[in-house]
Amino acid sequence: MTAKRILYQPENISPPGETVFAADTLIPPIYMQELAGLTSKAAVQSFAARIGIHPGIVVGRLQHDGIIPQSWMNELKDSFTWREPVAG
Question: How much is the pLDDT for 9?
Fold first, then answer.
């Protein structure tokens, strides 16, 4: 597997109901007020560790919700590119 940054808009891939379900499952609504105040890498990492998810998920949610710009904290995300199996 080779790491590579891949940008996409989830709302263009999933129906809106599925996007909301996934967002609320990964970061439950009870954390929304706290989520809105996360504006530093240290705060994101601490929050993610406390609720048991990867910091990149928190960054993606913050970006998706417009809390931080799309260009902020991307280094906390992990991206992967799948290689097709070689026939033979």
Answer: 47
What's the pLDDT tens digit per position in 6-38? 444 444 555 566 667 778 889 999 999 999 999
Instruction: Report whether 56 contacts 76 (CB < 8 A).
Output: yes
| Number of CB atoms found within 10 A of residue 57's CB | 19
Q: What is the pTM of this model?
A: 0.71
Residues in the chain: 88
What is the residue-wise DSSP string for 13-65?
TS-HHHHHHHHHHHS-GGGHHHHTT--SHHHHHHHHHHHTS-HHHHHHHHHHT
- The CA distance from 3 to 25, in Å, is 26
Contact 75, 56 (CB under 8 A): no
